[in-house]
Amino acid sequence: MKKEDAEASEANKIPSKKLTKKQRLCIECRKCCTKVGVYTDPSIYELPENDVIHFYQARGAEISRSGSDLFILFDLPCPHLTTQGCAIYERRPRICRIYSGLEEFGDECLWSSLPKKNSSRCHRADTGAEAAE
Questions:
Q1: What is the reported pLDDT for 76?
Q2: Residue in 36, 34, 27 with CA at minimum distance from that of residue 79
Q3: Does any domain span residue 72?
Q4: Residue 35: inside a domain, yes or no?
Q5: Is 130 within a domain?
Q6: Does residue 69 carry a pLDDT above 60?
Q7: What would the 3-class secondary structure string for the chain be?
């Protein structure tokens, strides 16, 4: 094996320390690492709502409704995501550590299978503990 291949393989390994159930679910799901969702109010556009929906769907986005807003979901994989998982898991950005996919993905987020007390955002500023860390 080439030195570069060995280094890449080592970098892509899932962390060796014991993972929590929440971390294992996060690594398994990867939905937050492959999709980006945004909310938009259709009334801000100068076009009819159906035209706005068609515009985003024509670009491969999934559209759903949340109250009066549209939720637009794009396929946009993280450049650090590999077939083995996150290549930078142990040094991933803070937003990746505290982000909860429950709001965007609901029951599709694997954290939804956790008991309610564990599935909410767990970031505590006083201790620095973070949701998926």
A1: 93
A2: 34
A3: yes
A4: yes
A5: no
A6: yes
A7: CCHHHHHHHHHCCCCCCCCCHHHHHHHHHCHHHHEEEEEECHHHCCCCHHHHHHHHHCCCCEEEEECCEEEEEEECCCCCEECCEECCHHHCCHHHHHCCCHHHHHHHCHHHHCCHHHHCCCCECCCCECCCC
Burial class (CB in 10 A: 0-12, 13-18, 19+), 30: middle
In this predicted structure, the answer to whether residue 107 has a pLDDT above a threshold of 90 is no
**b/e per residue, 31-68, with b = 16+ CB within 10 A?**
bbbebebeeeebeeeeeeeeebbeebeeeebeeeeeee
| Average pLDDT for 2-27 | 62
In the chain, the number of structural domains is: 1
pLDDT average, residue stretch 24-38:
87
Domain span at 109: 18-119
Place of tokens 């280094």: 7
